[in-house]
Amino acid sequence: MAATHNNMKKIYLYSRFERFWHWTQSILIIMLMITGMEVHGVFKLFGFERAVDLHNTLGLSWLVLFVFIVFWLLTTGEWKQYIPTSKKLFAVARYYAVGIFKGEEHPVHKSAGAKHNPLQRLVYLGLSAILLPLQMVTGLLYWTYNDWAAYGLNFVSLETIANVHMGCAYALLAFLIVHIYMTTTGHSLTAHIGAMFSGWEEVSEDYKVEDWEVHEKS
Amino acid sequence: MRFIRRSVFALVAVVFLCGPAFGVGDDAPGIEMARQATKGKELWITADHSKFDALKQPFKSGPEVTKACLTCHTEAGHQFHKTIHWTWLDPKAEKEMGIGKGGLVLNNFCISIQSNEPRCTSCHAGYGWKNKDFDFKSEEKIDCLVCHEQTGTYKKFPAGAGNPAPAPGMLFKGNGKFYKSPEWNKVAQSVSRPTRANCGTCHFYGGGGDGVKHGDLDSSMRMPSKNLDVHMSTEGQNFECSRCHTTVKHQIAGRIYSNPAAVDRKSLLEDDLGAKIMCESCHSATPHKSEIGMKLNDHTDKVACQSCHIPTFARELPTKMWWDWSQAGKMKDGKPYVVKGEWGKPTYMSKKGDMRWEKNVIPEYYWFNGTIESITAKTIIDPGAPVKVSRPIGSSKDHKSRIMPFKVHRGKTPYDVVNKNMVIPHLFGKDKAAYWKGYDWTKATAAGMAYAGLPFSGDVGFVDTEYVYPITHMVAPKDNVLACEACHSKQSRLSSLTTFYMPGRDASRVVDAGGWFIVIASIVGVVLHALGRIFIKGRKED
C-alpha cells in the first residue's frame, strides 16, 4: 500500500455540512440516474409515470441543495480548494498510472488547507462548475418544456436538450464509477470512505505540506 | 406567471420531498349543470305532446305527422333544411365539388349513395329520397319522428328510401326481418328531445349494420356501462348525445368533413354560449389534479384527451376493420352465400366480399387539426399506394393540431384503371345492372357512373383504400386510461409519428453509444487497475 503506517496522525478534514451535502448529493444523483434511465427506457422499475414524478422531485431537491452547497463554498472560502493547478498534476497522474503498482508514496498528501490533489481539483472543478450546472440547466429546461414559448426559447429543440441531459448523465455515471473506485486507493481500502463519514482522515506525520498547496485559510 | 407557479411548486416539492396529492373534489365547473340536465328530466320539459290536439288526428303517413308538427314548430322546417342531416352535403364546400355523402364523396364501405338511394337514405331524416328527383325544398318530407319519437317502435324500412314500411308491414329479405308499419299517433305523441337511442338509430348502424362504421358508436352505447363510457353511462352522468353536441336551431355541433367541430379550444368559463363539443368545454385545458397532474396537463396542447382516455374502441361489440370488395361475386351452387365468423359477423358475403371484424381495437394515431380531407369520385388517385379515401389533416408543427386516435377502415375498393379515379358502383336495385342482382362489376360501375354523371373507361380494378374515423366516444373511467408507457416507450403506440422527439421513445444512437462506451470503459479501466494492484501486491509478498 501507498503510505507507511508508522507515523500517522488524524486530521479533521471534512466538516459536518460538507459530509452532509456530499452524501445527500450522492443519494440524489444515484436516484436521479436510476429514475432518469427508466424514463430513457433502459429498464422498468417504478413505471414511467412514477419515475418521471420522482425524477422531477429529486431534481428540484438537488437544485435547492446545490444552491446551499455553492453558498457554503463561497462563504467559507472552501471554493479555493477547487482552484486548479498544474503543479504535481502529472506526478499524480503518473502515480495512479505507474507508481501505485510499485508501492510508491502518493506525491501529494491531504491537509486541511489542501483536501484535494491537483488531479482531484481539476476533476471536481469540471464537475461542479460545468457538468453539474449543465445537467441542472438542461434538466430544468426539459421540465419546463411547455413554457419555452413563453420564455422566448422557441429556437431550442427538445431533442437537443434531451441529448445533452443524457450525455451528461453518462459522463456522471462514468465519474461515479471511477470516483467510487478511487476511494479504495487510500492507505487502506476504506480509509477515504471512512473519512467521508467521520470527517477525520489519517495522514502521514512526516509529510511536509508545500506552500503552493496551502492557501491563507487554516 | 407560470414560472412563479413552478417555483412555488418547486419549493413545496422540496419541503415535502414526496409531497401529498393536491386534493380537489368533484366540483369542476359544469358538473352541477350537467346533473340538472340529466337527472330529473321532467323538469326540463314543459309540454306533454300526448295532450296536443294536432297530434290526435288519424295519421296514415310520415309527412302527415310532420305537417302537424309544423303547425306549432313553425320555424323547425326551414331550420332543418339548412342542416347536414337534411342536405347530406358539407355546408361550407362548393356544391360542384360534391363534398358530402349526398354528393360525390366516397367511402370504402358501400362506397356511394349515388344510384343506391332507396337503401342508403333509409338513414336520411326525410321521407322518400329514392332518386335525383327528391324535393329538398319540401318541409313535409322532413322526418321529425326518427329523431324525436320515444316509443322505440318507430323503424324505417331498410330499403324504403327513408319511409317506414307501409301498413300493415313488410318483410326485408336482406335480413329476414319483418318491419311493422308505425302506429303513427302513438309515436307522434311520444316526441321529446332526442336521446342516445334516437341518434343511434342511424349513427350506431352506419354502413348498414351494428358497429360497422364508427367503432366508437354502436348499439352498446344506447345504455352504456360506466366502463364503456363514463359520461353516457346510465350508472353515471347519463349524458344524452346532445349534452356535448350542443344544438341550436337544429344545427348540431360536430365536425363536418373539413369543418372542425370547434375552432377554438375554450372552456365554458371563457364562453358560456360556446358549444360543449370539446372535452375542454367542461374540463378546461388543465383537468388533471393528481400529484403528477401538472405534467399531464402539459400534454393537453399536443395530445387530444381521447388519445389517453379511450385506450381501445369497440370494447363491447365488434367493428368492421377490413372489407375486400375484389372477392365479391363468388357463388355456391350458383347462388350467393354468406360465411359467418366469430361474434356471428359475416367474414364473407358474395354481395360484398371478404371482411374482418375486430373487438377492443387499439386506435391508430395521427396529428389532427379537426378537419378531415375526403376525395370524391372525380379525384385522380395513385393506385400504386393505398388510396386515402379520407385522411386527417394536421402536423406536429401546427399548434392547432393534436395527436388524436382514429379507426382506420382498410379495404380493396373498385376504381377506374384507365381514368385513375375511384368509381361509384350501382349496387342496389331491382335492375340487372345492379351489382347485387347481376354480379357484374363493369355493368354496375357503368350504371353508377352514368347516374352520377361521371366518365367511365369500362375497366374496373381494385385498389387498397383507407378511411378514417376520429375516435371520440367510449371515454373510459379514469382508472382505465392509458399508462404513460403506452406512448413513452420503445414499443410506443405513437411509433408512426416520427416528426418530433418524445421522451422514453426516442434516443440519439450517438449519445447512447458514446455514453455506454465511456461507462463501460470506466468499468473496464477500474477493474484492470484493481487487478493490477492485487496482482503486483501479491507478487511482492511472494
Secondary-structure element sequence of chain A? EHHHHHHHE
With helices defined by DSSP (H or I, 4 residues minimum), what is the helix count of chain A? 7
> What's the number of extended β-strand segments of chain A?
2
Number of helices of chain B: 16
Q: Give the % helix of chain A.
A: 55-70%
Helix/strand/pairing category of chain A: mainly alpha
Produce a short descriptive summary.
By secondary structure, chain A is mainly α. Chain A has helices at residues 16-39, 48-76, 89-102, 118-143, 148-151, 158-182, 191-198, and strands at 8-12, 200-204.
How would you portray this structure in words?
The complex is a heterodimer of chains A (218) and B (542). By secondary structure, chain A is mainly alpha-helical. Helix content of chain A is 60%, strand content 5%. Chain A contains seven helices and two strands; from the N terminus they run βαααααααβ. Chain A has a two-stranded antiparallel sheet with strand order 1-2. The two termini of chain A are 29 Å apart. With 542 residues, chain B is α+β, with helices and mostly antiparallel strands. Chain B is built from 16 helices and 15 strands. In chain B, strands 5, 6, 7, 8, 9, 11, 13, 14 and 15 form a nine-stranded mixed sheet that branches. In chain B, strands 1-2 form a two-stranded antiparallel sheet. Classes of the chains: A mainly alpha (218), B alpha+beta (542). At the A-B interface, helix 2, helix 3 and helix 6 of A face helix 1 and helix 16 of B.
Key traits:
heterodimer; A: 218 residues; mainly alpha; two-stranded antiparallel ribbon; B: 542 residues; alpha+beta; two-stranded antiparallel sheet; 16 helices; 15 strands; 25% helix
Structural topology:
The complex is a heterodimer of chains A (218) and B (542).
Chain A: E1 8-12, H1 16-39, H2 48-76, H3 89-102, H4 118-143, H5 148-151, H6 158-182, H7 191-198, E2 200-204
Antiparallel strand pairs in A: 1-2
Helix pairs in contact in A: 1-2, 2-4, 4-6
Chain B: H1 2-15, H2 31-38, H3 62-72, H4 76-81, H5 84-87, H6 117-120, H7 145-148, E1 169-172, E2 177-180, H8 184-189, H9 196-203, H10 241-244, E3 247-248, E4 251-252, H11 279-283, H12 293-297, H13 305-309, E5 319-324, E6 338-340, E7 346-349, E8 353-358, E9 364-368, E10 372-374, E11 387-388, E12 390-392, E13 402-416, E14 421-422, H14 435-438, H15 441-452, E15 460-470, H16 509-541
Parallel strand pairs in B: 5-13, 11-15
Antiparallel strand pairs in B: 1-2, 3-4, 5-8, 6-7, 7-8, 9-13, 10-12, 13-14, 13-15
